Amino acid sequence: MRYLPLTGDDRAEMLAAIGAPSVDDLFRDVPEAARLSGPVDLPRHLGEFEVEQAISAMAAKSRHSGVMASFLGAGAYRHHIPAAVDHLIQRSEFLTSYTPYQPEIAQGTLQYLFEFQTQVALLTGMEVANASMYDGSTACAEAVEMARRVTGRHRVVLSGNLHPHYAEVIRTLAALHGTEVVSKPAAPGGEGDLSGDVDGGTACVVVQYPDVFGHVTDFTALAKAVQGAGALLIVAVTEVVALGALVPPGAMGADIVVGEGQGLGVGLQYGGPYLGLFAARAKFVRQMPGRLCGETVDATGRRGFVLTLSTREQHIRREKATSNICTNSGLCSLAFTIHLSLLGEAGLVKLAALNHARAVTLADALAGVPGVKLLNQSFFNEFTLRLPKAAAPVVEGLVARGILGGVPGARLWPGDPAADDLLIVAATETNSEAEIAAFAKALAEVLA
Amino acid sequence: MMNRQGRPSTPGEASSGAVDTVLGHRGLDHEEALIFEQGQAGRSGVDLPEVPAVTSRLGNLARKGPIGLPGLSEPQVVRHYVRLSRRNYAIDMGLYPLGSCTMKHNPRLNEKLARLPGFADLHPLAPLSTTEGAVEVMGVLAHWLKVLTGMPAVALTPKAGAHGELCGIMAIRAAHVARGEGETRKRILVPESAHGTNPATAAYCGFTVDPVPATAEGRVDLAALKAKLGPDVAAIMLTNPNTCGLFERDIREIAEAVHGVGGYFYCDGANFNAIVGRVRPGDLGVDAMHINLHKTFSTPHGGGGPGAGPVVLSAALAPFAPLPWVVEKDGRFALVEDDKGQSFGRMAAFNGQMGMFSRALAYMMSHGADGLAQAASDAVLSANYIQARLSDVMTAAFDGPCMHEALFDDRFLKDTGVTTLDFAKAMIDEGYHPMTMYFPLVVHGAMLIEPTESESKESLDEFIAVMRRLAEAARAGEVDRFTGAPHYAPRRRLDETLAARKPVLRWTPPAPAQAAE
């Protein structure tokens, strides 16, 4: 077995040193009835080539975004990842290290986390950010929990244009605490002001920016109303590249900004691992979940970095912790921070502009297809169409023409007939003008 | 000795003392500024095509000011992260005996396979007709997990061990609610030796945490446990093998007793690597158990994640599993995203940690049923070898064989002036990552050593020799090598108190210099 260094002789010598007659003897504390007498009913070990063949054969059954023109978004976006990102995250010292509990020999991880926290704070326009959460949806649910702790209130208002998966995760966790969740109806044409839904018992209002249908809304007035009622405004960003083009949520008065960082460095990966971004006002830092990296000095006065404020965390506070989170998305935060460092200010701004331009071209092309209605006045790189018929079969028709033509409403709001003819479509820098033209042509054919 | 140009080719009278270097570098050990201290506006490491002129539809919300990100070319960025990487310890560099964390070798085949575009370039909401390969990996992985644990169902979506705990406790809660006992079953029993995530999870789910004491042998006190049982107990959360590295001998009695009062048995599967292929948790009375794919099945720890924490469930709990699920019909696998049944809901957007599923499956198929059992055996053998070879100079916390990790306490350091922390930092100077220290809490000055199955006997012998020498040095009064440690790391001991008292959590630009008068 290529991964196991011990030989038969080694094992015998080690048993002799221990004074045990056999390895089985070391398992003597296991109740006899529970000890297996032979191997379980699974295949025996395989060579590297055989495993590669078997798993590659499975991968070959997927028709992925590389072989079809992909216009899928709704919470996950396909962006080009520079080759240097994947090379650097595979360096052994990053890939095969643990959470930086021994800071003197983990300065590499700790310094990039400090840089990552700074980048996230700058992008979102917030004062502090943590070292990552599992993904955008769990970060969003943790933000709601944090708002309950900060305000001591138990009523939560969710925008109808918050990604339905995010809303579902919040509702799932809220059920544990008896939190009242007010879920507004989805508004594909754009949602009105939610100020009227806030009352003196409200802990927070959760909105998405751009929202799940792609609309870009100014939340400045909402932030004032929410804070005026003693509640917090949580803004979720599922497409982080948008922050290269848009006014940051912090500048609109958000109290907590959460996000899905997958769009930079991480890739699609069928939904995970992804990267939860979590940023907040500095005054809430001791109520934040997750790891925080901070600056300090060593015994000789040199700058260094450590995990800090850990009295919020489960390994110190146990049942009084702000969250049960332990492992986060370390390597994904590294991929994100490397990608963003490669882009830099100029690169990110241009990437975002390019995404917007492609989406504008696509929106105009698709809105020109007979029977198709564009529902957005504003958008970044994603928008919603109302089709003259149910969208799910149309998407299958587009697959037959080599196009992943968006996410049908029925996929996100199953069982809601009002969503059946909706199609959420995204464009990124990876979509050429030729692909856009082909998509419009194919959509016209499928609808004809 | 001189070479032909008269240049000395032997070291000569080199001074052994430290010298101050111009930039603070020390040979291969480079000081590296923050990326924000390096960039210049206008530079970029990415070339993009020209942006076509379009009328903006950003709804008057176009960003007005700069973001503040630095600009660097690709060579600068690559150098930055390579230099940072060299300031980390890693399993690829040496033995990483961090108990409870299972730092085993990460096969590179798994990295290669996870990057196949049929998994990596697949959108989570792509039409189900296009994602068959990825769903097959999920289905096959689920099958392996169920067979290895002897459990009938598995929820794949949890994103880490603690998220798996949340999943299991939520399923247990949902089951109690479904039989009308949601309001009465409010207490969860958690042994004192448990991982911090256990009480944190139970409290997060709205339960009261009731600690169960340990015996002098480092195991759950069965009598004390039974005394705490009652109709208000929702579950017990028990790690097995436990955090002291011991198998809970009374596990079946514990399960029976908890079941007897209508509670469920949640097993923290963080240490499943000790028994995989040799013992099935389903045979021990477990109702739910998370499996850290990043421990037992060797997906890389990545400096703190991402992990994956699938949860195996008993038949009683399976109906409450979170969405989505994988179902198998006629040898083909399908994803179920919508269900009007008893599922407690959704724990995260999308389909779980696909990138970890493909890696873990590659690990399982490489080892096979035989290799997985051998890996568990070797892990247990190696830990016992360390315990046996160190017990005369260090103090083992408990008698008898351990499982995959050996636990020592700090009695051997008594009156030496050296603490567990000092001892750990001295290991850094010797080229090792320290063991887990001060955990579990039930042992004073705990040192928890987990070698895993990845170490050769030569490697174990070297480690043992170093640990013996350090233990002797502590008792011989060589205090300075401990209290001043680490001496040979990129940083000397860091001031964690300062970091917490005056938190600096991000870089801020230096204040502009005063204008010259």
Fold blueprint:
The complex is a heterodimer of chains A (448) and B (517).
Chain A: H1 8-18, H2 23-26, H3 48-59, E1 69-70, H4 83-89, H5 92-95, H6 107-124, E2 128-129, H7 136-151, E3 155-158, H8 164-174, E4 180-183, E5 202-208, H9 220-228, E6 232-237, E7 256-260, E8 276-280, E9 293-297, E10 303-307, H10 314-317, H11 330-367, E11 373-374, E12 382-386, H12 391-400, E13 403-404, E14 407-408, H13 409-412, E15 422-426, H14 433-447
Parallel strand pairs in A: 1-13, 3-4, 3-5, 5-6, 6-7
Antiparallel strand pairs in A: 2-8, 7-8, 9-10, 11-12, 12-15, 14-15
Chain B: H1 74-85, H2 108-114, H3 117-120, H4 132-149, E1 153-155, H5 161-178, E2 187-191, H6 197-204, E3 208-212, H7 222-228, E4 233-239, H8 251-260, E5 264-268, E6 288-290, E7 311-313, E8 325-329, E9 332-336, H9 354-390, E10 395-396, E11 406-409, H10 420-429, E12 436-437, E13 447-449, H11 457-475, H12 480-483, H13 496-501
Parallel strand pairs in B: 2-3, 2-4, 4-5, 5-6
Antiparallel strand pairs in B: 1-7, 6-7, 8-9, 10-11, 11-13, 12-13
Helix pairs in contact in B: 2-9, 4-9, 5-6, 9-11
* CATH class category name of the largest domain in chain A: Alpha Beta
**How many DSSP E strands of chain B?**
13
Percentage of residues assigned to helices of chain B: 25-40%
**Strand fraction of chain B:** 5-15%
What is the CATH topology classification name of the largest domain in chain B? Answer: Aspartate Aminotransferase, domain 2
What is the CATH top level name of the largest domain in chain B?
Alpha Beta
- Shape verdict of chain B: globular
Query: Low-confidence segments of chain A, ≥5 residues, pLDDT <50?
Result: none
Family (chain A): Belongs to the GcvP family. N-terminal subunit subfamily.
Catalytic activity (chain A): N(6)-[(R)-lipoyl]-L-lysyl-[glycine-cleavage complex H protein] + glycine + H(+) = N(6)-[(R)-S(8)-aminomethyldihydrolipoyl]-L-lysyl-[glycine-cleavage complex H protein] + CO2
Enzyme class (chain A): oxidoreductase
InterPro entries (chain A): GcvPA (IPR023010), GDC-P_N (IPR049315), PyrdxlP-dep_Trfase (IPR015424), PyrdxlP-dep_Trfase_major (IPR015421), PyrdxlP-dep_Trfase_small (IPR015422)
